[in-house]
From TrEMBL:
This is Nucleoplasmin-like domain-containing protein. Residues 106-182 are annotated as: Disordered. Residues 106-120 have a biased composition (Acidic residues). Residues 132-159 have a biased composition (Basic and acidic residues). Residues 172-182 have a biased composition (Basic residues).
Amino acid sequence: MSLHCFFGVELQPNGSPVTPPLPPKSVLVITHCALTSAQPGIVTLYAQSHDQVTRFAICTLGADVGIFYVPLQHIFAGGISFTLISSASGAASQCPAVHLTGYFESDEESYTPDGGESDDSANVPKKGPTTARDDYSSGSDAGDRSGSERKIGRVDSRKRNQGKQGSNRSKTNSKRGKQSKH
């Protein structure tokens, strides 16, 4: 079972690092960065791992350039600090702050008390959209999958084939029509 907890912080463009507390056996997934106001000024969000000395630019926002929001999908597994820097040489208080949001994700069933993975993790379906091509590309009958998952795979396969059959039917019907006329 995967647990998700909301994460959100407002960062000021003063260059002060903000370190969110990371729960044990969790990762932090950053999903959105948005300006808090339409004040002029350009700001850049940086991330720095506690294991490295280099910081990395995540995104740059600014009402001046029409970038008010940036969707993100960054996953951080260890200690991380976020810093917002203004590109203006003037006072940082004139630049907008940003809201940085995401969630903490913890997969408690995949870990046993001794630190190893449990056998249940093998039965957890993979994340993301499942297509028939993914399910049956190996050529094996997915015997270890539940019946409902096989049904979903077949439905996806039919939908894909219906689109192909629809275009093939018109070609086949036109060929039959030509053949019957001769």
